[in-house]
Specification:
- This protein has 6 helices and 24 strands.
- It is α+β, with helices and mostly antiparallel strands and 431 residues long.
- A 7-stranded antiparallel sheet has the order 15-14-18-3-13-17-16, with no helix packed on it.
- α4 (177-200) packs antiparallel against α5.
- The longest helix has 27 residues, at 2-28.
- The radius of gyration is 50 Å and the shape is elongated.
- The two termini are 89 Å apart.
Length: 431
């Protein structure tokens, strides 16, 4: 019995010793059940379970290029070869365009400054010839038209007195009117000479003599009018003024009668611009002073102020059919302006002060948004979004996006835009 009790005591003591030993190990290293000595190359501290001692081969110092701080998993110091400063971040959108490139494309800039900008009413219009600047060539005889120069066409230069067509009626049933006029003249002339002898002898009365004389004068006038321009091919029809042939109204071989228009000749020195304005702008018409316009066939913007232009009149009521009010200008045709052609018109009204504007050439448009390119330094540029206002054909009002002193690219914009696109285009390489 004593041995039995002694055995139980030994078992209990053994179990108690084992428990105490386990608790001591857990207190000394609660996160790692493996005991690591100080010099084994894997010294683990209490903070992370793997404390790296100065000599463990895994000590990360500040100068190793991979110093990891508490708040950043990749803290790059000034000496690590990857310094990203504030200055670089500020110019991530800068466009590089060298001085050589700028010179090759003729790049020009303009310094932005507030100024006067006239209020604009944009509309459409038509260029017309002024009264007295055109002449219509008409047929002076009945017959078949034959153009002197078969290659004559619209736009051909015409001089005063130049023959345009000949009219012949020789093969017509009624006969040649020139020949008839000649016969009538010769007959009237012979009768008049005979009447002169008879009136001296009082054989005919004075009344009869006057009637014979009247027939003679009439026949003479008709014949001389046709004989002056009569040739072997028919009656020549000439231009009364110098200019250019605006349009041909008949074709080769067409029959015409006396007084029928054959062609129109225009001097094209002074022309008119007739703009059609919506009645909504009626109250603003009295303030209109000038206009700019651009022809449908040309990108050039013409300014009436440079063409001796002036406002002739503006309507006081709208047309019943078009509901537009006409505004008419007159100017010297110093450019290639074709009367009868249509134009985009910018009517200039009351002035507005302290307005920032840029040339139309400085603007680019992308999906309804407008941009300009600013010059930051000699070879640095920046794409800047702007909000535009009125457009007078030459310059555009800027409502937001630019400040006084900004340098805006006005020529070479397309080349700078291409440089911007190429600088952000992915090429499969990390720089």
């Amino acid at each position: 019995m004593k041995y039995y009790i002694l055995g139980l005591f030994l078992v209990a003591a053994t179990l108690l010793f084992a428990c105490n030993s386990n608790n001591k190990n857990q207190k000394s290293n609660p996160k790692d059940t493996h005991e690591h000595v100080e010099g084994d190359g894997h010294d683990h501290s209490e903070d992370d379970g793997h404390v790296h001692s100065p000599g463990d081969g895994h000590n990360h110092s500040e100068d190793d290029g991979h110093n990891h701080s508490e708040g950043d998993g990749h803290d790059h110091s000034k000496d690590d070869g990857h310094n990203h400063g504030t200055e670089t971040a500020e110019h991530t959108d800068e466009i590089l365009f060298t001085k050589e490139q700028a010179k090759s494309v003729g790049l020009t800039t303009e310094t932005v400054s507030p100024g006067t900008f006239l209020h604009v009413i944009k509309t459409s219009g038509q260029v017309q010839a002024t009264q007295g600047d055109e002449a219509t060539i008409v047929a002076t005889s009945n017959g078949i038209v034959s153009f002197i120069n078969s290659s004559i066409s619209d736009g051909t230069a015409i001089s005063s007195g130049q023959a345009i067509v000949t009219i012949s009626a020789r093969n017509l049933l009624d006969g040649d009117p020139t020949a008839k006029a000649k016969i009538a003249f010769e007959t009237a002339q012979a009768e008049f000479k005979r009447a002169e002898g008879l009136i001296k002898d009082n054989i005919i009365s004075t009344k009869e003599y006057e009637q014979v004389k009247l027939r003679y004068e009439t026949a003479k006038t008709v014949y001389e009018a046709q004989a002056a321009n009569t040739t072997a091919g028919g009656v020549r029809v000439t231009s009364p003024i110098s200019g250019y042939l605006k349009n041909r109204l008949v074709s080769q071989g067409e029959y015409v009668s006396v007084g029928q228009p054959i062609a129109t000749v225009s001097q094209n020195k002074r022309v008119q611009l007739k703009a059609e304005v919506s009645e909504n702008y009626f109250n603003s018409l009295r303030n209109i002073s000038s206009a700019n316009f651009r022809m449908a066939y040309d990108k050039t913007v013409y300014k009436l102020s440079d063409m001796n232009g002036r406002l002739l009149s503006f309507g006081r009521a709208a047309d019943r059919q078009s509901f537009y009010i006409p505004v008419t200008f007159e100017f010297d045709n110093v450019g290639d302006i074709i009367p009868g052609s249509f134009a985009e018109v910018y009517l200039l009204s009351s002035p507005q002060e302290n307005i920032i504007s840029v040339p139309v050439s400085a603007l680019t448009e992308e999906q309804g948004l407008y941009f300009v390119y600013l010059q930051l330094d000699e070879e640095g540029y920046k794409k800047q979004e702007v909000i535009i206002g009125q457009n007078n054909g030459e310059r555009v009002e800027i409502l937001a996006g630019l400040s006084s002193g900004d340098k805006v690219v006005t020529k070479g914009v397309y080349q700078v835009k291409l440089a911007a696109i190429s600088s952000i285009m992915p090429d499969g390489h990390t720089h």
